[in-house]
Amino acid sequence: MTSKIRCCGAILLVVSIILVVLSPFSAKAGAFNVNKKKAIMEVDSFLQIKTTGSSGKIKWSSSDKSVATVSKKGKITAKAEGSCVIYAKDGSDICSVQVKVEDSNKEEKADTKKADKSETTLKPSTVYNENGITITADKYTHEYSKSSLKLTIQNNRSDDITYSANSVIINGFSFTYTNYGTLYSGKKASMQVDFYDSDLEYAHVNVIEEYKIPLSISSKDGDSLFKCTVNVKTSAYETGTGSYEFSGSEAYNKDGLRIVLLKSKNPSLKHPFGVFVENNTDQDMFVSFSNLYYNDELIASIVSGFNVLAHTKYAGEQSFFLYGDIGIDQLEKVDLELYIQPKRNDGWVSSADVIISDLVSITYT
């Protein structure tokens, strides 16, 4: 009886020793783990993997580093679209994370690479969201214009408003642009900003990088509420103007204003000359012309003008066509009367405010 008890006791002692020896390994095998088994990531995003039950230094690795990499501390970086496995090794124990990397901008990037001169690479976006007004920008297809922009104005205010714009700035050059309307509470309105290649040709703008559009917002009764500037950046949109050669004749350079008349001998141009104005003053200006002479002959008593905003430049062709039998090869001289007026706070100009009045000329010989 006693021998049997001693035998059983010995057996129990051996089993206990075996359990004591084996239990740490069994506990470790079940305890070491990662907090994620699967993960869906976006290209260029990060994900920190956490572990539990580790008994020492963990070694991390990726089955495909071109898809995703992992740091020594378990931080995953998504590199490119695809799938891979991230491994965490603790001694003889290994845990894995199935990673799928997606690229939601893949189609947009492909469109950008394929973009040609007929479309902008502008991404639809909100460009203004203050004072109860939300403005979004998007590209706009126009039959005659390649460099078109569409703005959608949403009136979130409780009152009706009016909006107006009289200039647009492209790459620092201001151009006359007129758009206005009434916008009722809770309603939307669209503004299309259309440009032709010829409008940008004299400015040598063949890649549009940024639009800026100053807007005036007033109450329906005409009381000014606030002013804002809409900024829209594009992704190197080519206008297709190509190269253009011209020479200039400085007509005025004083008190922060510089005016150069630009002449062309390009037979393909219907308009024989343009104008460059640099406004370095703190005030918006209105530049206008009257009484056009070709070769000392009065062609027309006309009025043509444009806005040049403060601290911007203007360069563009003027709508003065060649008349009669005079071709661009026969044009020797152009004379016209030049007027410059500062714009008032309400956006209007008055003949009483003319600060420059002069006869300016371009010689073609």
What does this structure look like?
Helix content is 12%, strand content 50%. By secondary structure, it is mostly beta strands. The protein has three domains: 33-102, Immunoglobulin-like, CATH 2.60.40.1080; 116-238, Immunoglobulin-like (Sandwich); 247-363, Immunoglobulins (Immunoglobulin-like, Sandwich), CATH 2.60.40. Strands 21, 22, 23, 25 and 26 form a five-stranded antiparallel sheet that branches. It is elongated.
What structural category do the secondary elements indicate?
mainly beta
Overall morphology: elongated
Major sheet summary line: 5 strands, antiparallel
Counted by DSSP, the helix tally is 3
Quick one: how many beta strands? 26
Summarize the amount of helix as a percent range: 10-25%
From the alpha carbons, calculate the radius of gyration and give it in angstroms. Answer: 36 Å
Shape-level CATH architecture of the largest domain? Sandwich
- For the termini, the CA-CA separation is 136 Å
Which range does the strand content fall in?
Answer: over 45%
Summary of the model, kept short:
The chain is 12% helix and 50% strand.
What is the strand and helix layout of this fold?
Elements lengths: L1 H30 L1 E2 L3 E5 L3 E3 L2 E2 L6 E4 L5 E3 L4 E4 L3 E9 L2 E10 L3 H9 L10 E6 L2 E7 L9 E7 L5 E10 L2 E11 L4 E6 L3 H5 L5 E13 L4 E15 L8 E8 L2 E7 L9 E7 L5 E10 L2 E4 L3 E5 L3 E6 L15 E10 L13 E8 L2
Parallel strand pairs: 2-9
Antiparallel strand pairs: 1-4, 3-7, 5-8, 6-7, 8-9, 10-11, 11-12, 12-15, 13-14, 13-16, 16-17, 18-19, 19-20, 20-24, 21-22, 21-23, 21-25, 25-26
